[in-house]
Amino acid sequence: MSTPPYDCILIGQGLAGTALAWRLHWRGFRVLVVDREPPVTASRVAAGLLTPITGKRLATFPDWDLFWPEAVRFYRRVESETGSEFFHQRPAIRSFASEEERDLFDRRLDPALRSFVRPADPPLREDWFDDTWGAIEMPEAGRLEVTGYLDASRRVFLSVGAYRNATIDPERDIEPDDNAVRIPSLGVQGRWLVFCQGYDPGSLSRWFSPVRFNPAKGEILTVRVPGLQEPRVIHRGVWLAPAGEGQFRVGATYVWDRLDCEPTETGREELCRKLAEFLKLPFETVGQAAAVRPTMHDFQPVLGLHPLHRRIGIFNGLGSRGSLLAPRLARLMSELLVGGAPLSPEIDVRRWYA
Ligand SMILES: Cc1cc2nc3c(=O)[nH]c(=O)nc-3n(C[C@H](O)[C@H](O)[C@H](O)COP(=O)(O)OP(=O)(O)OC[C@H]3O[C@@H](n4cnc5c(N)ncnc54)[C@H](O)[C@@H]3O)c2cc1C
């Protein structure tokens, strides 16, 4: 990554833009990342959890065996290149919330689900947690300290002149032609420009107008739990994730209206109530944050190049799984830009134009 003209300009340095910047850099592209640095973004609010099983119905992530090893390799490589530690591989616990949930698990014999779990070892401590219906452990799980990862990446990008703090108006600031895309307000141009803006209602309007968001607001708490020393993330209706220095994060809510980044009393009460259903220790709320997950209408990520303006691309729709999805999808996007490798139709933005 060095001086202009760039091979690729990325608008947005969340989980999407950061992963794509690394992937392109490793392939020898000169990259410029531009971000407006608002105080709150989805990536900076996210707990960064990676787990193969989610939700009440114990849904398994279908391509876990593809995405998980690639995410591990990717974050380890970025750790080594930034000299920072932010990725923690550690089993996560799924504690059953009711007899019905336990029965559902006992009846489900599908090999995928079984391959992701084993008995919790050590079991949950009964003086800390309600364990009435038992718990299982997911040995393959991880937690990305997202802010640490984004900040460490940004420092490296800055040090090689590959990062700018600016707000880009997609309607007015972008001038593409057959060979390049210019941003006159920044005095830069790239062979490609990729929008990695997360949820931003205006972001799709001019260049990707057929693409539709179905975003979900989420809230998350930071709590202090004196005496609790459980290093594993516990999932039971909500999750409780260690955050260091005696603090834990608790999340997350899902709301499909009021799509703003304002924490609410309702969100706090819901998270506290669900936490108290399984945590026996007293806790104190010391922080609260909210942001909007960039989920698309068809619940699939969206990446690729504009069908007409082939110099303009998009990388978005990471929904509630940005930490797991970004490393592999960024590689696929980089292979499209560097070598023209086609994307599969279910993730290619061109599906929205069919
Ligand atoms: C409460 C909550 C909990 C979550 N927990 C998890 C979790 O445990 N695990 C997980 O994997 N995922 C989680 N997620 C989902 C995760 O946050 C998203 O998948 C991910 O952050 C999306 O990343 P992104 O880069 O697409 O978007 P963003 O994080 O929104 O990044 C977009 C970036 O683009 C910049 N930008 C936008 N427009 C412009 C512009 N015009 N000019 C310049 N810059 C611009 C913004 O400043 C921002 O930095 C959670 C989300 C929420 C809300």
Bound chemical compounds = flavin-adenine dinucleotide
Low-confidence stretches: none
Main beta sheet, described?
Answer: 8 strands, mixed
Helix content: 25-40%
From the alpha carbons, calculate the radius of gyration and give it in angstroms.
21 Å
Termini separation = 36 Å
Number of helices: 8
Number of DSSP E strands: 21
Instruction: Please identify the structural class as seen in this structure.
Output: alpha+beta
Could you tell me the mean pLDDT? 94
Order of helices and strands: EHEHEEEHEEHHEEEHEEEEEEEEHEEEH
What portion of residues belong to β-strands?
25-35%
Dominant shape: globular
Question: What does this 3D model show about the protein?
Answer:
The two termini are 36 Å apart. The protein has 354 residues and is α+β, with helices and mostly antiparallel strands. It is built from eight helices and 21 strands. Bound molecules: flavin-adenine dinucleotide. Flavin-adenine dinucleotide is lined by residues 11-17, 34-36, 38, 41-43, 45-49, 167-168, 196-200, 203, 218-220, 251-252, 291, 293-294, 316, 318-324.
Summed up, what is this model?
The protein has helices at about 15-25, 40-45, 65-80, 100-105, 110-115, 145-160, 265-275, 320-340; strands at about 5-10, 30-35, 50, 55, 60, 85-90, 90-95, 120, 135-140, 140-145, 165, 175, 180-185, 190-195, 215-225, 235, 240-245, 245-250, 285-295, 300-305, 310-315. The chain is an alpha+beta fold.
Main features:
alpha+beta, single chain, binds flavin-adenine dinucleotide, eight-stranded mixed beta sheet, globular, 21 strands, 354 residues
